[in-house]
Amino acid sequence: MFALCVLALVGLGQAALAETVVAHGYKMAGDDTRVRLVMQFNREPEANWFLLRAPHRLVIDIPDVRFSLEADETNARGLVTDIRYGNIGDDRGRLILSVNGPFAVEAFDILENSSSAGYRLVADLVATSTENFEQALADQVTTTGSTRSTEKGDRVIKGAEPAQARFTVVIDAGHGGIDSGARGVSGAIEKDVTLTFARELKSALEKLNLFRVRMTRDDDSFLRLDERVRIARQHGANLFISVHADTIRYRSVRGATVYTVSDQASDAEAAALAARENLSDELAGLSIEDENHEVSDILMDLIRRETQSFSVRFARTLVGSLSDRVELIKNPHRYAGFKVLRAPDVPSVLLELGYLSNKDDEKQLLDPEWRAKAVDSVIAAIRNFAGATAANGG
After folding, report:
1. According to the model, what pLDDT value does residue 139 have?
2. Cα atoms in the Cβ-side hemisphere of radius 13 Å centred on 120
């Protein structure tokens, strides 16, 4: 009789283990603008998620779960700054991701594995504006307080839709900190030139009292390229302008250039410049992992295309405005694969003010009067673009 009881208890224990959902094989990839996490399960889990602020967090609750994760699997990276997990009673497990600023949950799915047994949880987190995050919190309160897997149509963040009344411009002073950028023929340093111009542009824009203006850096600090993009998105930028002053091997070449992003470069010089600028992180001693973030659905791809169209529109407007007062390079609108211009929902350009390898350009870049003329030209282009965007309902 005793043996039968023991066998019955063993059988019940095995049945309970069979019913338990085991979480294992946690992986995370991404950067400062977006992160994808994937967690494997032995059987299909139920999962709910909700948002918290101060600090910004994603909380994932999973009933009847047992975590079997390796410590080195759950290292934070990119947008995610901390990961905690464990059981919180009644066999309910909780995973908490702390995030570097406001974010959106672009996708959250439970998918059956096709090439192995079990299921996987896939979640995509992307940097977004404070206004969009607060709206998501408000929506959360008015619904169930938590959310299950998203439908495909809900996977597109709306960071390009301005939640604030004023058109927001984010100015990015190129380089900074350990990454000095180019050095001029007379010793001017690119990171100082770009910061001076960015500050002057910000000050002049703010005096108009028409725009909301932010900078990615306002001191001699280093920022990764993806951090610059994240800052633009989290400020809800309607326009992102990255300011640079590079060098080129042909010292006779001079003049301003406006670049937009493209997978195919307009010319060899544009490709070479993009390659140099994209090395910024590596020059600072950071390991480079070029994550290939697949588009979640066709609607997101359409948003990227529309954003690129707006970027080109502003670039042409800026070239036209600069041409009245500033010398331009031949074919002044060019394009290449600049990482800093890759925000999917923020029109972005890289403004090359001139070449520090040319003594005349370097002299102009250090001249307050010349910079004031250039600032006026940039502002005229911004006002034109903002007005057209508003008129078209953008």
Report:
1. 87
2. 16
